[in-house]
Fold Glycoside hydrolase family 2.
Amino acid sequence: MTTKAYIKDYPRPQFVRKEWLDLNGQWDFCFDDERIGETEQWFKQFPEGQKIIVPFTYETKASGIGIETFHPQVWYRRSVVIPQEVAAKRTILHFQGVDYKAKCWVNGVLAGEHEGAYAAFSFDITPYIKYGAENNLVLEVQDSQSCTQPRGKQRWVEQNFECFYVQSTGIWKSVWIEHVNEARIEAVKMTPDIDRHMIRFDFQLKGIEDKKNLRLEAAIELKGQPVRTVSLSADRSWITVEVNVLHEAGGPWKQSLWSPESPNLYDVQFVLYEGEQERDRVSSYFGMRKISIENGQILLNNAPLYQRLILDQGYWPDSHLTPPSEEALIEDIDKTAEMGYNGLRKHMKLEDPRFLYWCDVKGMLVWSEMAATFEFNDDAVSRFTREWLEIVPQQYNHPSIITWVPFNESWGIPTIAHDVRQQQFTQGIYHLTKAIDPYRPVVTNDGWEHTVSDILTLHDYVEKGAEFLERYQDKESIVNNQISFNQWKRAFAEGYAYRGQPIIISEFGGIAFQTDKGWGYGNQVDSEEAFIERFRAITGAIKATPYLAGYCYTQLTDVQQEVNGLLTEDRQPKVPLEVIREINLA
């Protein structure tokens, strides 16, 4: 169950080139609490310090350091030999995620800067390379405890509290190098249209200005069988083409759709030629699937979709936000499916591309959610918007992602219920997201106090199924803001009204066993039987409410002091997984 071009641990599995170098592993490392590194030119003469294992942050045991105290500035250094035989190519240094503000030097020369913890970025370091010799890569990372930077569940004080955990500072996703030709495929945006049996490719090319006789080729396969090959002139930087994915006459394959039950993926090779000479080759894949809303229903491939989701925060005990391995990502997806869930809400985190790859391969639905700020001002608006507009295009091609969630529970927009500026901010993000991706639903404030939103999502941690049924029997009083549906918040912000959207209970449950070492939602239970009884009652009540289109249970695993997972932090089941599955599928 992999795509044709799959390479284990390749950091960007939906845009694969064979020529790459993994830079994860041991780096030199220094704290810089006094912020003297630039003044003293550590990028030229790195001080004696300690070692760190990248991509794990210094706060984690997996990094080899394991200091949880916040440090505002850290430095990394490692050397790498760039072989002479790639001197005619461009050398691109990729960072999949660095928290929060990065500056990179190569052989003492500034190569680039980036701000934002969750978006991937890269620098063309070709001008600074010494070929056939060692090259020094130095990275300065600045972080803060500011609540105007998107930080998600990372604490901004010295100790964990409520549902906020140890911060992450520095490199926390893979670092790698690839060598590419001057003329190359920079990106491809892939948009399926199942009703017309078409896939649209929007190509972004780079370095083609002085080239002649350039030609693009896209060769599509399904299950090892050729589907169609198209060729077109590459005479400009942005090119769009639509391709019919029905197999040509006489072939054995028709259109195969992507769904949780049948996660069919088409392999595709993108090749850029200059004359007959190959200049670039990228391997990728896509899924033919459609997510839509009609008459108050969510549809997948034009059929009603009932979503059984689980909240997934993506934390591990020794590596925090960074997965300890690709196998760990696969394990989480497999256990989610084993419990009868058909999807997950990735909460307050933009996950590793390898996770989304395996969701694509295994048919796991994903809600992709932005990490929140916790203050509202011009700086927070600017930071949030800039990073979100990087993230949406980076994740756009994954068929598993079916919903965008830029905001959650009024975090970063605390007075949205009546504050027109905050309401307009969410509207702006909604429409900017739709400008990039008009094909997926957008939830602007998951949980309550919605403005413009494609789905009405409600958070309610009521413990008893009977109480839930009583509370939700009168749909109109909830959707028309006549009552506080969870005895705390109302469904819509002032000035906004229900427009017939599908309704999902997108947080509930949070059951925890009796313990003095952490917390869950509501009363803790003292036995497996009590856990199952409560889980069965509340899940059954939601499923018995006819106007609901699905649910999202809190949560997959324990996370630090929050001990309300169906699994422990080290992924051990607290109750038999087959029991959870039976309840979900009943």
User: Anything to note?
Assistant: The domain at 302-585 is CATH 3.20.20.80 (TIM Barrel). The longest helix spans residues 378-395. The longest strand covers residues 73-82. The chain is about 15% helix and 30% strand.
